[in-house]
Amino acid sequence: MRIKRGEIVKIHSNIEHIRKSKRITQVELAKRLGIPFQTYNNYEKGKRTPSPETIFKISKELKVPIEKFFEEKIYDSKNIS
Known about the structure:
Blueprint: H1 5-21, H2 26-33, H3 37-45, H4 52-62
Helix pairs in contact: 2-3
GO molecular function, one term: DNA binding
Pfam families: HTH_3 (PF01381)
Domain HTH cro/C1-type: 15-69
C-alpha cells in the first residue's frame, strides 16, 4: 500500500474524527496500539504518517474499514460504521 501525498491530510483528520466519535482518547488508543502517545499525537496532527501496518492496527482498534481513512473528510458520525 502506497500512501499518496494528498491522502495524508485525509488520513490524519479522519483518524482523529473517527477516534473522537468512538469516545476514545489519544492516550488510550496509543496504549492499545503499543506506541508512544506522542507518536500517535503526531499522526493526528499530520506531523508523521503512520505506516500501512499502523493504519491497519488503527482500523482494527477503531473497528472501521481502512477505506474510511482515505475518504473525503468525515463530518457526520453516522457515516462511520
